[in-house]
Write a structure and sequence with these properties.
The chain is an alpha+beta fold. It contains 9 helices and 9 strands.
Amino acid sequence: MSPFAKRKSGSIAALGESALLEKIRRWLGPVSPPAPFGIGDDCAVLPAARGQQLITVDPVIYGRHFDDAVPPAGVGAKLLKRNLSDLAAMGARPTTAVLALTLDPRVSLRWLEQFYRGLAAEARRWRVRIVGGDLTQAENFIGAYLTLLGETAGPRAVTRTGARAGDAIYVTGELGGSRLGRHWRFRPRLAEGAWLARRPTVRAMMDVSDGLAKDLRALTPPGAVSAIDTAAIPVSAAARRLATRTKKSPLHHALCDGEDYELVFALAAQANHTAFEHAWQRAFPRTRLTRIGQFATTTAKIPNILRLDDFAGYEHFR
């Protein structure tokens, strides 16, 4: 669905900012509490956090993160889920969010309503309160920027640093082919991330948003390399379908496509990997977990490892 109205009467320009804000409050419903704890004051008043606080921000931009093929409710849901995935990667749970929109005056009221209703439905699902934001005008541009606050679900937040040579590398789910629809239909791994954060043997973790080939570099400890078993990479069926169109290999799509929103993490070398995998299966029988390799010293001789330098994920500004 195009976000642009065919006639001015059906656009946000026909309302103006004040009337549009009233509609937004109605579209969000109970996920937006009354002022001063939500929309309507200069700032929102938040309760004190119980644990460590975390904050992240991610946008969705028309022509970059979505197009007319994505329903507006799916765009709103994707905006929140992109941010939820960042919290999942650190073992946190979401609390509140603020949303800034930059909109062309020609944006359709019908499109924007469905966008907000999709956002609200996703916020209810994950118990997120939308407490404020901003509206601004631009020509020929549509962008939504959500800032999400969260707090640790357990005793710590897991960061990207902390892996050591010898640690095993695991990834959840399947990879590649996200552009065929999963880039907005995915489910953030919040429960899985919180479960992993409670295990001291999980040393480092992040979400796969720019492609495994790129994201793994951020987890790799100094003086080590990612020794990946090519045959172990969980290539999705979508990556195999996409490969028939692009003439690139399914493995290329699994490593480079990005927007998988799965978790990749390092498990300590001394951990009981078999017991860990069995515990995972009991906790998440529907979420695939794959050991894809290990972090090895640069001097280690490991045959048939994948050369990640031959692949590149998504890189901004290139």
